Structure formats: structure tokens, C-alpha cells
Amino acid sequence: MTQLQAIRFAELKNRLRGEVILRNGDAYESARKVWNATIDKHPAVIVRCSTTSDVVHAVDFARNSGIMLAVRGGGHNIAGNALCDDGIVIDLSQMRAASVDPGARRVTIEGGATLADLDAATQAHGLATPVGINSTTGVAGLTLGGGFGWLSRKYGMTIDNLESAEVVTAAGKVVRASAREHPDLFWALRGGGGNFGVVTRFEFRLHPVGPDVLSGLIVYPLSEAKSVLQKYRDFAAKAPDELSVWALLRQAPPLPFLPRESHGTGIVALALLYAGIPKLGQLFLEPLRKFGTVVGEHVGVQPYTNWQKAFDPLLAAGARNYWKSHNLSTLSDGLFDAVIEYLGKLPSPQCEIFIGALGGAASRPAPDAAAYPHRDAQFVMNVHGRWEKPADDARCIGWARGFFNASAPFASGGVYVNFLTADEGDRVPAAYGSNYDRLARVKREYDPDNLFRMNQNIKPSGECVMRRTSN
Ligand SMILES: Cc1cc2nc3c(=O)[nH]c(=O)nc-3n(C[C@H](O)[C@H](O)[C@H](O)COP(=O)(O)OP(=O)(O)OC[C@H]3O[C@@H](n4cnc5c(N)ncnc54)[C@H](O)[C@@H]3O)c2cc1C
């Protein structure tokens, strides 16, 4: 760090209520860690903001000094864009407060909250909004990319439940975006990622959920995968909106409800949640138990917040990860063959293939109702390359890429922006489809100099550059 930089960081620190963490600080090593252990970036300074006004100072600092800027919500993003080398990180991990108005069925939550924070606050009132399936994920990054999980078939994507957002823009202004205020910005925030500013507060609509819900796992052997997946496809096509069933193919973890001899063998796990009266849900589940030879079942009525954490142990922070993702409008037999082939050559016991079901309410809005365009995606399929040692990087990444290529002919061509890895910037147009041009225009309006570029980047449209040069 130069002496000039040191003076500037000291000035910034004086303006803030939050913490400023420099390279020589005690907290630096832990503060620069994110969920994916392959990310190894060294920011010049990490600003742990406490208030919206801290965020304004940090944005002003980045803009005025020309230093690279990254924004960290929950730190979960696979691409590691929550950090940057040699720049400033606006870290919102201390801004996690939530406030629920049960009468109005609304929650307001700060930009660094996790899904666990959100679920805990809303479930205290028997309410929830649809979010993802791993409770340590950040509300901010998830929402800004679209957001889906167990409740999405019934209540839509996370963005479909967003009422308003408080945003610090690239100019350092605090604005409220909603259907009435800054409507273009509000449209862009609902899927356009971190391209448009720092969101310090989200307001969501809530729905009655649980607090106890019918949920759990039904597990089949990999040897029956093809016919189980075929039956899953037929079942999913007729399932009510209340019922979400996802398929997970991997090696069996040592779960107590699975026989000891099945641990470590290949399985197809059907993971499900029924977002309605549990007794009614039981009736819909019956066919799922007849897809083949059940290895084990653990389905019952349990707190929604428990089910929201059920996959946390399999997806804990600190492992090395390389993911690839396809949107699917149908599930074809050729796809099942590719899945089974790649399950047969898993490079590490933690690698897996996930098929998440969308459809229902998540598919009903028009593709241009918000920046997220993929309303035709009935399924999102992820290959999770996941391992422990750097020495296994090439093998595990190669496996994930191999499956991605083998399954590409059966995919729709679209992709969910939140599952793009660091080397997939060229897929950003596919993530936005026909909404890309409008996003580039909104980017020009709110961030013409692309201050917020450490993300799956939407470039400000060219017209802007010309107009700005001629002014
Ligand atoms: C284990 C795991 C499970 C997942 N499951 C699901 C799932 O079920 N459903 C689903 O929809 N997605 C899921 N995802 C994807 C997830 O939505 C994205 O990784 C998301 O980006 C995580 O948000 P974050 O705030 O934790 O990430 P971060 O890494 O902190 O942020 C990601 C990006 O979002 C932007 N950003 C973050 N916070 C802000 C803010 N406050 N203001 C402006 N921009 C901001 C920045 O550009 C940043 O680079 C999962 C990811 C993982 C790793």
C-alpha cells in the first residue's frame, strides 16, 4: 500500500460507523474468504458497512479514487465476484436486520442478510417468501439474480415477491425503487444482478407457510435411475403448484435413514416440499413411492426452517467448487443417459447433479415482466463439481465441463445468471435473452461508467458512451 493510499483509507475510516479491514489487519484473512474455496482474491480494503450512509461513503470513495469495487452480500456466489484483487469490497455482512409487519404481510430486510435470517424473522409469524434451498446463501445476490426454491411453484420467484428496494447508486444517491419510483431500475434489479447499485434494503411480500410443512426425501438406487427419472418427468408434468420435487443424483451420504450398506453408493434422491395442508400433500406423494425399489424414505411434517437447512451440510462453505448450469424446458431420455453416464465416473464423493423444478407460478409472468427472462424454464439443472484438494482441480473441473457439454444438446440454451462461474462471462447474453438491450439502457442511466462491473457484467449501452463524449 502506498502512503497516499494509507492516508485515503484512514480518511474513509473516519467517515464510517463500520469497520475498515486492511491487508495487515487481524480480520483480513477471514474477511477475504467466500463460500467457494477456489476463490483466492486479495482486496486492498474491505469495508464492513453498518449503515446505508457507510455504503454511500464507500461508493463515493471507489468512484472518486477509480479503484475497483466489489459488493458482498452472503458471499455465496460461485464466481467469487463478491471480492476483487487490489480494490475495495463493500461487505454488507453486518447489515442483516429484518422487520416484519405481519398484518400487511411484508418484511423489510437489510442487504447483507442470509436466507436463514429472512426465514427466522418471517416464520416467527408463520409467513415466508420464496427463496433458495441453502440457508447460508445471501438474500441480496439470490434476489438480484431472480431467486427460486421450494415455494416458487406456488408463490413465484423471489423477484416476483419484491415490493421495493433501497439502492445506493453509482452516483452515491440513495433511491427507492418500486413499481412507482424508479420503475426502470426496479425492473432491472429483478434479475439484473449487482449491475445497478448496492441494495441496502429489500421489501418482500409474504405468504402463510407452515410453520410445519410436509417435506423430505425418497431415495432410489442409481441402478434404477433411468426409469425413476422417466417417472419423475411424468409426475412433475402433473404436479400441483403446491408440490415441488427436485432430483439429486450423487453418492449416498451417511444419513441415518439410509441402510449402512447403501452409504457411498449411487442414488437418485427425490427431495420434496408440499406448500399446503400436509394431510392433503400426503395424497399427492403416494405415486412417488412407487417409482422403483425405495432405498430409504424420510418424509414427514417438520418446521419449514428445518427443511430450509436440510441441504446445508452437503453444501457447507470451504470446499472447492466448479459448477455449470443449463435451463431445461423438458427432460429427455438422452439427458438421462448423459446424467447416468457421468454419475458412473464421479471424480469426488461430493460431486453431484441437481435437477430443480420450476414451472407453476414461477412460469406465469411474461418474460419481459422483469429482467429475469426464463419463464419457460421448467427445470434448472446444475452439475456441482465439488472437492477438497487443489490437486484435484483439473479432474473435477474436467468432469463438470464434460457433463455440461454432453447435456447441452438437451438444454434450452438459457441459463440462470446466479449459477454462472467466473469463466462464463460470454454466457451473460444467454442469461438475459431479449431483455439484454433494455438492461444495457438502464445500466447507462444508473451506472454509465460501469462502476459496478465485478459481476456478470451488463455493459452500459453504446449510445450512452457517444452521448457522454459529445457533452
Ligand atoms: C450452495 C448454493 C446453493 C444455492 N441455491 C440456490 C437456490 O436454491 N436458488 C437460487 O435461486 N440460487 C441458489 N444459489 C445461487 C445464489 O443465488 C447465488 O450464488 C447468489 O449470487 C448468492 O448471493 P450472495 O449474496 O450470497 O452472494 P455474493 O457472492 O455475496 O454476491 C454475489 C453478487 O451479487 C451482487 N450483490 C451481492 N449483494 C449485493 C447487494 N446488497 N447489492 C448489490 N449487489 C449485491 C454482487 O454483484 C456480487 O458479486 C445457490 C448458490 C450456492 C453456492
Written description of the protein model:
Helix 11 packs antiparallel against helix 12. The protein is α+β, with helices and mostly antiparallel strands and 471 residues long. The strands form 4 sheets. Strands 15-12-14-13-17-18-16 form a 7-stranded antiparallel beta sheet. Strands 5-6-10-8-9 form a 5-stranded antiparallel beta sheet. The protein has a 4-stranded mixed beta sheet with strand order 1-2-4-3, covered by helices on one side. 29% of the residues lie in helices and 23% in strands. It is built from 15 helices and 18 strands. A hairpin with a 4-residue loop joins strand 5 and strand 6.
Give a short summary of the structure.
The protein has about 475 residues and is an alpha+beta fold.
The unique ligands bound to this protein are: flavin-adenine dinucleotide
Q: Tell me roughly what share of residues is in helical segments.
A: 25-40%
In total, the number of strands is: 18
* Physical arrangement of strands within the biggest beta sheet: 15-12-14-13-17-18-16
Task: Give the percentage of residues in beta strands.
Answer: 15-25%
- Integer-rounded radius of gyration: 22 Å
Main attributes?
single chain, 471 residues, alpha+beta, seven-stranded antiparallel beta sheet, five-stranded antiparallel beta sheet, 15 helices, 18 strands, globular, disordered C terminus, binds flavin-adenine dinucleotide
